Amino acid sequence: MKNMKTKLLMVVFFGICSLQAQTTHDLIWERNFTSPQSDLTIETGDTVRWTWTDALPHTVENNTGSTETFNSGTLTGIGETYSYTFTQEGVNPYLCGIHGAGSMSGTITVVNQLSVNEFATSKLIQFPNPVTNELQIQLPQNFNKGTISIFSVTGKQVLNQEVSEGGNNVITLDVSPLLSGMYFVTYEFGDLLETKRLIVR
């Protein structure tokens, strides 16, 4: 009986840990990419990954008043990436140090981790990733009508689907026509604006 209780506690513990595992949020990074598209609200421990989608040299660096300090250094070329994990609650304005805040900037707002119940009902999940034919998307239970869009790394929209309010919480997208490579999936549902990276094989 004692061993059984221990095993059950381990299952609950690892279930909670996997539920609260940190999330990686993807943003494109190119000229004329500014608020509100470049703004995110994330949780402490989450990572933001910027992917260069033009051939120009850019940096990702904190701007004046940022809670945390980060700097990618100068990177050049489509497909370059920079990732930073935010560990403190606060507001982090950022910009490209080469092209300035007027052309490339945004704000990462970091909040404390949600409770297990809040986390379970507020997160958007897409799977499998990598994907070959069909992408499954599980929407938050209280989602409003919105739009799911897929963009290539060059910023070209390759798929767009409207989702009706009160519809099925699980959406299936046929991505078989897409060429193999990396894409960005943007979700816009009321106040929810989130971009996730997708690999198509």
UniProtKB/TrEMBL annotation:
Domain (Secretion system C-terminal sorting): residue spans on this chain: 127-200
InterPro entries to which the protein is assigned, alphabetical: BlueCu_1, Cupredoxin, ET_Amicyanin, Secre_tail
Stretches of the chain forming a coiled coil according to its record: none
Pfam families, sorted: Copper-bind, Por_Secre_tail
GO terms, molecular function: copper ion binding; electron transfer activity
Keyword vocabulary terms for this entry: Copper, Metal-binding, Signal
Domain Blue (type 1) copper intervals: 38-110
Signal sequence coordinates: 1-21
UniProt key word S-adenosyl-L-methionine: no
Signal is among the record's keywords: yes
The protein, known as: T9SS type A sorting domain-containing protein
Organism: Formosa maritima
